[in-house]
Specification:
2 domains; Dihydrodipicolinate Reductase, domain 2; 327 residues; 25% strand; alpha/beta
Length: 327
Amino acid sequence: MKVGVVGIGWWSDVLAATMQKSDRLEVAACYTRSAEKRATFADKFDCHPAETYEDLLAIEDLDGVILTTPNSAHRPGTEVAARAGKHVFVEKPISNTMEDGRAMITACEAAGVVLSIGHSYRRHAALRKLRELIDSGEMGRISLAEGVFSNFNGLKLKPGAWRTDAVEIPGGCLMQIGIHHIDNLLYLLGPATDVTAYFNRLEVEPEIEDVTALLMRFESGAVGYVAADYISPRRFQMTLHGTKANAFFDIDNDGLRLQRIGEDKPSPIDIGPSDHLMAELEEFAECVINGKVPEVGGKEALQPLAVVLAAQRSSKKGRSVSLKEFM
């Protein structure tokens, strides 16, 4: 599958480097408004630097686009690509608003092209194993789930970049990094019903929230906790509490561990190698080539977006917010 990468930045390089290792995808072209960034990316990944987005979409044998643009550009970028008959992969979140997300779904359905959204962490081997442990009944009934994602990127942010704009990043660090764990918990525990959240801005120079915490109540009766922090050292951890076992996942240190009732401490669970970025990108190719339905298409991606927007409203209004207000 030949793709064009649109919106050149640090994350576009990460995805392009991943695709270079795949025999199912080829980075054939790129576009961003900066001629210098286009040229640098094209030289690095041996692809054609299109001078306009329209020029990129006019490449006859180009199958699709990878959009790593600012969130507010996801809708127009998707709609134009769909009209050109190109399949679309959009980095998370699907958009900043439910209205834009629904419009993207409509555009791709009308054009008969694939819309896939980059919620990648659910594809990590540890998350797949957790899903297996839940489905097999080995963990029993899940009552509580916790997800924490922190890094210190907020301390480096300066006003002017799109990631420092409250309009571009509603919900601040929850939209930027916490949404990963929101999607993970939706994947593991199913639909949520309502959200209670607290947002604050403590240290970052731009006017975006740098510490957020929310409670999610699920249809199953389980409760989930997600925290995102933009001003402390990196941490990416999850804990699941079940009636038969607890599971602990630390992506950078201890891997996946399971502690069954009666055991004094958790034991490591072998999950094998994992490349969640490769998995999501190769699935995009499989959807285009073989007609597979994306695991996280537009409709699935609206759910974590709705949680973030509900959390933002909850913090502002000082009340619990039903997801029905958004879904």
